[in-house]
Design goal:
The complex is a heterodimer. In chain A, helix 7 crosses helix 9, helix 20 packs across helix 21 and helix 20 runs parallel beside helix 23. The two termini of chain A are 48 Å apart. By secondary structure, chain A is of the alpha+beta class. Chain A has five domains: 141 residues, no CATH class; 159 residues, Sulfite Reductase Hemoprotein, domain 1 (2-Layer Sandwich), CATH 3.30.413; 76 residues, Alpha-Beta Plaits; 147 residues, Sulfite Reductase Hemoprotein, domain 1 (2-Layer Sandwich), CATH 3.30.413.10; 121 residues, Four Helix Bundle (Hemerythrin (Met), subunit A). Chain B contains four helices and eight strands, in the order E-H-E-E-E-E-H-E-H-E-E-H. Helix content of chain B is 30%, strand content 29%. In chain B, strand 4 and strand 5 form a beta hairpin. Chain B has one domain. Chain B has an eight-stranded antiparallel β-sheet, covered by helices on one side. Classes of the chains: A alpha+beta, B alpha+beta.
Chain lengths: 749, 198
């Protein structure tokens, strides 16, 4: 028999207790799913809230270009995501608050990509890391290894507060009001698992920016966009945020509205919490297409929304965490590893000047620079990560940040070290220039792995990158700094609305074939925090999009007036002229004439949308009380295991706690702030559910309710097998009663 | 670590291509996709294109039990077969099963109509990677535990050949062995020497 080692044992001393417990709960839920003891929507939302995401391919079928072939799995139960196999390999999203990573965390990321994924880590447009093709059985160890270096995947997906993003230049930026890093970290930590952020109808996105006029945090397109501002009161400078709310891209993009011109720093956390409560209470839950915050604000109006939030804010019980972090704002400060030395006179390797021109940003701190590491399509191999870690340790002080343009940045590089750094990057294939230019095309996963993808955003991005990189510095200066962003569908994960040239996947029927197309969206604004959205110009076959880029950019070079911006140019010539310009490119030849139109970029098979499925990003709407009740069920299951293992005290205690959790879940449907103490929960439960007979069973009356009160009275009793056994049985019945009560309340989804 | 008690399943075997550098990523992609619906003895799921990354996977065929990747790790093109799911038996049995799977995939590629005479494997060298830092850390102890099994399984199919096994002692990397074999070998010959059960 071989030795059985486990990451759980190996990392026991390194994983914070709360993270360890969360992961163990998830491990139990996987087991319950395997045993068919957890409702499918609950499990789906549970795994999504841990960042465990279904991939497109695994919906039980695969189209190979000529026919659709069912895939045979050991477990034929069709549920990983909706309509997919739950135990097929999927995507693991890993939240990286403000994009900040240490070299140790990066090394772990490299190891995880290699051992559980495909040796590729993917940086997303919201500064997350994604690993693909991860088996669900591996996710638990993967989470443990992340937890050991301080990373949680909790709420990386599902109807929750997603990764809190922030400007990657924060702290070194030349135009920022102040460093927003500690604020973004504090808000991310505060809302993670917060009870007031668990009952949303859809996801909730937050971004921070240090200044108004750059792209940075893209505050205009988030549910909360916090832009650093200061004011002087009585000669003293105060910090605060211009507080944008209700922005969002997606199929129906909304510009955020200013809720507060100056939200004092001490109000950032409580007002965000109050917003969570308002959104949970009033946000749409049934119609998923209108469940984002932007629709609620559009419905009630910004003034009424502001009023609701402040009313809620006043009712919040005081929480010391709201301001505690303000006493230590330097906690996220980064310092230089080496002394600042100017670049003057240092020998420059070939290609360096071009790279320097596009990938290097001089910091506010004299003699230091930020170097952007351009990642093609946001992908980096495990070996490259390790190479980058070595460079980071050599030139900067241990930290790296991810960007919403799917790149990584090294900050605090002494300018004189830039040529050496460039040479080091070249050795690991990461010295590509063109960061933030037209070559640096951003794309969501699209049809490669996303169930909602309609056309191959990554395939098109790869093609455009290749073609544009060939032209490189020969491109006219006026177009070099334009941005191209591509989404596989209208949901805009590639942020096409805020690009100069944006594209999103659509399809068109031609004769009996489906042909991949991209809708052309022109004139979006990247600067000013994603200041304005582009205009849709019409759909063009996927294979003609490179021609669209050429034609539009050449037209701009020739037709611009003076220093006219691309946005102004598009607006001036108007939609009709652009449409006319692209008209001939919209034609699709017959299949017999040119079959290449009927395949997509990066996929030589004939195009189909037959493998699309319901998207994972929307998650499942599961009311908070249902999570509580499901959690109590899990605890009874654990209590039963303790009983089987003859650990009677643990069994009794766990069974008691399971009842308490169920009771608390019910009470919270009426009073969100019920305290955690058992006495409070029991008192409220008694008044609200027992005395009102809400909990009464038609036949058993208050029999099941009595179990929890009796268990409380017997807490000091010596626990033997009989008592433990009885408690587990009673807990089971009490929880059944709680589910029945919840059903009678008429709120079961 | 007891040499008889190493518990590793995730075994990767890479055979290098002696020809095939000119085969484009689209071709690998298309070929792997054709394998998915017609393969009946294992579950193959998806194909991923990573031809845009430097010295990494080029085209990856993802399966439930194993992945098959045209891989350019360290700049050397080859087919990397990586086992993901548990296997029966001791290390040598597991290694032999993985070796059989790798050779079968190599043979299948060499026989692809689209690749006929364009892609051949150099059977005189291979790389063995243990993709499990927990159970197979990159240490001398792991080497001691797995080397006899690797030698025994290889000697069975490389009958009478001299084996040179070098351990890559690179900090942070997965446990890996670079193996060179004397003599003239090809995939067909090795497949014939493979025990039926593997």
């Amino acid at each position: 028999m071989a030795d059985t080692l486990s990451w759980k044992d190996k990392l026991a001393d390194r994983i914070p207790q709360h993270l360890s417990e969360e992961i163990e709960i998830f491990e139990t839920q996987i087991e319950l799913k395997r045993q068919g003891k957890i409702a499918d929507p609950v499990f789906a939302e549970t795994r999504l809230r841990r960042g465990v995401y279904g991939q497109r391919y695994d919906n039980g079928k695969r189209f190979d270009g000529s026919r659709t072939q069912p895939l045979q799995y050991p477990d034929a139960d069709l549920l990983k995501g909706p309509d997919t196999l739950w135990n097929a390999p999927g995507m693991q999203r890993i939240k990286i608050p403000f994009g900040g990573l240490t070299t140790e965390q990066l090394e772990v990321m490299a190891d995880l990509a290699e051992e559980y994924s495909d040796a590729i880590a993917h940086i997303t447009t919201r500064q997350d890391v994604q690993l693909h093709y991860v088996h669900i059985d591996d996710t638990v160890d993967l989470m443990r290894r992340l937890a050991a270096v301080g990373i949680t995947t909790r709420e990386a997906c599902g109807n929750s507060v997603r990764n809190v993003t922030a400007c990657p230049l924060a702290g070194v930026c030349r135009t920022e009001s102040f460093d927003i890093t500690p604020y973004s970290r504090a808000l991310a930590e505060f809302l993670l698992g917060h009870p007031d952020a668990q009952d949303f109808g859809r996801k909730f996105k937050i971004a921070f920016s240090g200044c108004e006029h750059e792209a940075c945090g893209l505050a205009n397109m988030h549910d909360i966009g916090a832009v650093a501002v200061t004011r002087v009161v009585d000669g003293k400078t105060e910090r605060g945020f211009k507080f944008y709310v209700g922005g969002g891209l997606g199929a129906v993009p909304h510009q955020a509205k200013v809720m507060e011109e100056f939200l004092p720093e001490e109000e950032l956390l409580p007002v965000s919490q109050a917003m969570g409560r308002v959104f949970a209470r009033l946000g749409e839950k049934k119609n998923r297409a209108r469940a984002r915050l932007k629709f609620l604000i559009a419905k009630v109006g910004i003034d009424e929304f502001r009023k609701l939030v402040w009313e809620e804010r006043k009712q919040l019980p005081e929480d010391p965490r709201w301001t505690a972090y303000l006493n230590d704002l330097n906690v996220t400060d980064e310092t230089a590893l080496k002394q600042a030395v100017k670049l003057n006179g240092v020998a420059r390797p070939e290609g360096f000047d071009e790279w320097m021109d596009t990938n290097v940003y001089p910091q506010r701190q004299e003699g230091y620079a930020v170097a952007t590491v351009t990642l093609p399509l946001g992908d980096i191999t495990s070996d490259q990560i390790r190479g980058l870690v070595s460079l980071a340790r050599k030139y900067v002080n241990d930290t790296v940040r991810s960007t919403v343009e799917q790149n990584l940045v090294l900050r605090w590089v002494p300018e004189a070290d830039l040529p050496e750094l460039y040479a080091g990057l070249e050795e690991i294939g990461l010295s590509e220039s063109g960061a933030g230019t037209i070559v640096d095309v951003v794309a969501c996963p699209g049809t490669d792995t996303c169930k909602l993808g309609i056309a191959s955003s990554r395939g098109l991005a790869g093609e455009l990158r290749t073609r544009l990189a060939e032209k490189g510095m020969q491109l006219d200066a006026s177009v070099r700094n334009l941005r191209i962003k591509i989404s596989g569908c209208f949901n805009s994960c590639g942020q096409h609305h805020v690009a100069d040239l944006g594209f999103y996947g659509v399809s068109r029927r031609v004769e009996n074939y489906t042909v991949p197309h991209f809708q052309v969206v022109l004139g979006g604004q990247w600067t000013e925090n994603g200041g304005s959205f582009g205009l849709a110009m019409g759909a063009v076959p996927s294979k003609r999009i490179p021609d669209v880029v050429t034609r539009i950019t050449e037209s701009y070079i020739k037709g611009r007036e003076g220093t006219e911006s691309f946005q102004d140019y598009v607006r001036r010539i108007g939609k009709k002229q652009v449409k006319d310009m692209l008209e001939d490119l919209t034609a699709v030849p017959a299949h017999s004439e040119d079959p290449s139109y009927y395949t997509d970029w990066g996929d030589s098979r004939e195009y189909t949308t037959g493998d699309m499925a319901k998207g994972e990003c929307a998650g499942e709407v599961v009311p908070m009380v249902q999570f509580a009740l499901t959690g109590s069920e899990r605890m009874v299951f654990e209590a039963q295991v303790y009983l089987d293992d003859e650990e009677y005290e643990q069994a009794e205690d766990t069974a008691w706690k399971s009842m308490l959790q169920a009771a608390r879940g019910l009470v919270r449907t009426q009073w969100l702030d019920v305290p955690d103490e058992p006495e409070h929960i029991l008192k409220e439960f008694d008044e609200r559910f027992v005395q009102t007979e809400l909990f009464h069973d038609t036949f058993a009356k208050d029999k099941f309710a009595k179990y929890i009160f009796q268990a409380h009275e017997e807490r000091s009793n010596t626990v033997d097998r009989d008592l433990a056994h009885r408690r587990v049985e009673e807990a089971q019945l009490f929880i059944e009663g709680a589910f029945a009560c919840y059903g009678r309340m008429g709120v079961v989804a | 670590m007891d040499v008889h008690k190493i518990d590793v399943h995730k075994i990767g075997i890479k055979y290098f291509l002696s020809s095939g550098a000119d085969v484009d990523a689209d071709t690998w992609f298309r070929i792997f996709n054709t394998w998915i619906p017609v393969t009946t003895d294992e579950i193959l799921i998806d194909v991923a294109d990573y031809s845009h990354v430097h010295n990494g996977p080029v085209t990856l065929l993802v399966g439930h039990n194993s992945n098959y990747g045209i891989d350019r790790g360290e700049g050397r093109l080859g087919l990397l077969t990586t086992r993901k799911q548990p296997l029966e038996g001791g290390f040598e049995d597991r290694f032999r099963t993985c070796l059989g799977g790798a050779l079968k995939a190599c043979a299948r590629l060499e026989n692809e109509a689209d690749l006929k005479d364009r892609a051949h494997f150099d059977c005189s060298m291979l790389q063995v990677v243990l993709n499990d830092r927990l159970n197979a850390p990159n240490t001398a102890e792991t080497l001691k535990a797995v080397k006899p099994g690797v030698e025994s399984a290889l000697q069975q199919i490389y009958t009478g050949a001299d084996l040179s096994i070098e351990h890559r002692d690179t900090s942070g990397s997965l446990f890996a062995l670079d193996i060179t074999v004397s003599g003239d070998w090809n995939i067909d010959k090795l497949m014939k020497n493979m025990p039926i059960s593997a």
